Amino acid sequence: MSLVRRCLSITVLGVAFACEPPSRPADDTVVQVRVTPDSVTLDPAQTQQFVAAGRTLAGDSVAIAVTWSASAGTITPEGMYTADTSPSDAVVTATLMGSHMSSTSRVRKRHVAQIVLVPTAVTLPAAGTQQFAAWGVRNTGDSVAVAVTYSATGGIITSAGLYTAGQTAGNYRVIARQANGSLADTAAVTVTASTGGGGIPQAGHVFIVTEENTNYASVIGNSSMPYLNGLAQQYGLATQYYANTHPSIGNYFMLGTGQIITNNDSYSTIVTVDNVVRRLLAAGKTWKSYAEDLPSVGYTGGDVGNYARKHNTFALLSDVVNDTAQRKNLVPFTQFASDLANGALPHYSNIVPNLCNDAHDCSLSTADTWLRNNIAPLLASATFQQDGLLIITFDEAGGDNTHGGGRVVWVVVSPNITLFPGVAASAPAMSEFFTP
Predict the structure, then answer these.
(1) DSSP label at residue 321
(2) Given a cut of 70, is residue 430 above it in pLDDT?
(3) Domains parsed from the chain with CATH numbers
């Protein structure tokens, strides 16, 4: 701005007077407010310290007193900003106290802008499985882990993304939806028709329950076990099934390793032979051993209360004991109901009732009641009706040494089992081959 002299010179008593020209601003006057940083990208609820400084006419930076404000989120009088949880960007403003002079900084919010589900398309046979995975992509272009909920228009999918195709051929979708959000992605699933009719359906979920120390003749037809007898009549019963040895532990090892290993119920040595866990892992299948009264997840120690390790020999397999991740598959039976409700059951479930509920220390009636209370919900579940197979057997006979361990009950249950399939309905009984 130009300065104009607006006064006259006068002389009084021989002395000349003149007015002074207007003064210029001092060099230390603040002429600009600056905020640092001038822009920032934050996650929801993340904090950022802002600092304000003044610039003088001379170009120097000086400390100034400001008031802080923000269009979203919160900021303290000292400039500490906390982003809110909305996806909208925000503006932080510093205003020089006693002035309208101010400066701003832009706060860009990071947020998930897209859900990505892979694989995007897959073709599976009936009862085939596929592991899906999902993550988020933020507005800044980087990928981030997010919680999603899986669903499928056909077949079943676990909370961890493991999909199992149904028995009906067709085109289906798997959906991964952001938990507590509206973003989602889908994948295409084509289920192909089974070929070579008459084949045995593949079981996608296998369950084995082992009871204790009872002869075949003491179970079949016994009114104390109406639930188990009902399953035997409706589904399948092996009439010539024998245990391998006495006492218990050798039969449990036989079920898990194909070898007796020992007849010492107090055996505690870690076993390194080939076993069902090793084979399951090699095939990419999941497993758990649900043991009633197991003290804690991953417990491999000896007997506690009504829990007997001799009935849970998975806790003596090297593939389990020597692997931190696999030890976590030794779980208390209380986990079974939770996994069933959440669709999180593994491909292979070893189920171990405690010493009372497996008829070792308590009555057959007690064991039958336990089966009805705990197995009936399983059989009614969508998981089991899709591709389940259940085996209920006894480890050894109570007073029979035939073939080493005596004749015992072996019942198989599956939605794919019928008593007399196809032409078998009119075939000769051939009872001469199967008499006790």
Answers:
(1) H
(2) no
(3) 30-109 (2.60.40.10), 112-192 (2.60.40.10), 205-433 (3.40.720.10)
